């Protein structure tokens, strides 16, 4: 069943015609003067009547900026907003980070609890994030021997590049170059009617930043992402909806989303659902996506035994993949050292966020349920594995439809714990067949391309896991 979105694809409809040049408010584009207060004065002035904030050519060093309702922040070609490397220049505010509601440093540029706002232009927003990448690795190396890998991403507080939080009628794009984010690049959280149109993301410059996701759509609705060109060191186009007990408490899905006409050049995966799946996903369509270069997985669904949530009416089509090792991976036991929080004995002063992360989730609630997924017009060449699919025995992956699938791979891989998967118009050039285990009602795979495996302890899919691919 096809769905349609009721929001206006043009994004924010702004009022007012005033132009507010940041230079008039004292900003200097010399790359060294801290301009946070001056640029914010220009934004606040524009918000009084509605208008556009502009910059003369130059590099404007800044901490967190807050775009207000009725304001367009226009970053033209020849203009760079350069993020401060001092974490004190990013005020701590309530937000959600990696599926948990918490207090965290604001992004470099924020649309926070606003309406009818935009960040556009052909210029650059540069997080200059290596100092934050290095601080993360220092903390993580100290945490891992203590069994605290899961806590490092939350305790190493790093600024995102752009945050859209609890806002509506927002537009981001127009050719913006987004570079070197300290953490996620563009985070759309608890928001609706947001258009991201025409962003270039380049985070693998001056190093490989950990968790430098491209575009994260998080418990939001009526979202359009198009014409993105992404080179990052983690998930490129990613849908999220909360983690474990906290995500189940919030219980807010990501729904009514279109992602289209984009290219992924480097990332952990081309299109990702999760691993924060607790609120679920509904009515998502992604198409005309090219995945090439340094990307290990084309289409990725990832969750964990404590996440819960669901996927319903997901439509993925017209993907082209060249040299991508795994065409499609589904794992319900992703990266255990990160996914499962267990506080080691002997720690007396436990941070509140650790307690939230370690809150138990009953098994029945913890199993994510993906069903009614349609995938078609997939062309993949030079792959290592076609499918790596691992569901839950108690909650198998149900009613997947795969049509017009053309894959060239060294091996077929496997499909475990699946019910009612229908393949049609499938062309598989494989060096080894697809192994099926605890998979009932799977039909349409070409003769000679399937191997039925009896379930056994050694092949128990619930024991399978995939570790995070840290390329930093």
Automatic annotation (TrEMBL):
Q: Name one GO biological process term.
A: carbohydrate metabolic process
Coiled-coil segments: none
Q: Which family does it belong to?
A: Belongs to the glycosyl hydrolase 28 family.
Q: What is this protein called?
A: Glycoside hydrolase family 28 protein
Q: One Pfam family, please name it.
A: Glyco_hydro_28
- Highest classification ranks of the organism: Bacteria, Pseudomonadati, Pseudomonadota, Betaproteobacteria, Burkholderiales
Native source organism of the sequence? Massilia cavernae
Region Disordered: which residues?
450-472
Q: Does the keyword Signal apply?
A: no
């Amino acid at each position: 069943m096809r769905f349609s979105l009721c929001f206006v694809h043009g994004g924010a409809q702004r009022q007012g015609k005033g132009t507010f040049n940041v230079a008039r408010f004292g900003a200097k584009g010399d790359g060294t003067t801290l301009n946070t207060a001056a640029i914010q004065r220009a934004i606040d002035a524009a918000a009084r009547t509605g208008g556009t904030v502009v910059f003369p050519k130059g590099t404007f060093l800044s901490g967190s900026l807050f775009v207000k309702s009725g304001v367009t922040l226009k970053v033209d070609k020849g203009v760079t907003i350069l993020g401060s490397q001092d974490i004190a220049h990013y005020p701590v505010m309530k937000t959600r980070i990696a599926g948990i509601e918490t207090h965290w440093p604001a992004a470099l540029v924020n649309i926070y609890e606003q309406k009818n706002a935009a960040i556009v232009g052909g210029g650059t927003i540069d997080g200059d994030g290596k100092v934050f990448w290095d601080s993360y690795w220092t903390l993580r190396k100290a945490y891992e021997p203590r069994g605290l890998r899961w806590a490092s991403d939350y305790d190493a507080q790093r600024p995102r590049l752009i945050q859209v939080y609890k806002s509506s009628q927002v537009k981001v794009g127009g050719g913006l170059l987004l570079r070197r984010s300290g953490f996620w690049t563009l985070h759309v959280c608890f928001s609706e009617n947001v258009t991201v149109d025409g962003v270039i993301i380049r985070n693998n410059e001056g190093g490989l930043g950990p968790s430098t996701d491209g575009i994260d759509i998080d418990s939001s609705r009526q979202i359009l992402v198009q014409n993105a060109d992404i080179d990052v060191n983690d998930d490129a186009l990613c849908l999220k909806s909360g983690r474990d007990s906290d995500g189940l408490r919030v219980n807010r899905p990501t729904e009514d989303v279109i992602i289209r006409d984009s290219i992924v050049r480097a990332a952990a995966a081309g299109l990702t659902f999760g691993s924060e799946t607790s609120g679920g996903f509904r009515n998502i369509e992604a198409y005309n996506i090219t995945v090439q270069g340094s990307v290990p997985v084309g289409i990725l669904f990832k969750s964990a035994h404590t996440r819960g949530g669901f996927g319903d009416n997901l439509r993925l089509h017209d993907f082209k993949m060249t040299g991508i090792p795994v065409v499609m991976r589904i794992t319900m036991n992703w990266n255990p050292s990160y996914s499962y929080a267990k506080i080691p004995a002997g720690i007396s002063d436990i941070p509140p966020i650790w307690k939230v992360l370690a809150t138990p989730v009953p098994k029945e609630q913890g199993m994510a349920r993906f069903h009614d997924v349609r995938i078609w017009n997939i062309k993949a060449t030079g792959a290592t594995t076609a499918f790596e699919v691992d569901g839950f025995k108690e909650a198998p992956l149900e009613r997947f439809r795969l049509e017009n699938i053309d894959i060239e791979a060294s091996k077929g891989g496997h499909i475990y714990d699946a019910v009612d998967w229908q393949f049609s118009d499938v062309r598989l050039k494989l060096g080894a067949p697809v192994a099926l285990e605890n998979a009932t009602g799977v039909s349409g795979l070409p003769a000679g391309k399937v191997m039925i495996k009896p379930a056994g302890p050694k092949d128990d899919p619930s024991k399978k896991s995939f570790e995070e691919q840290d390329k930093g």
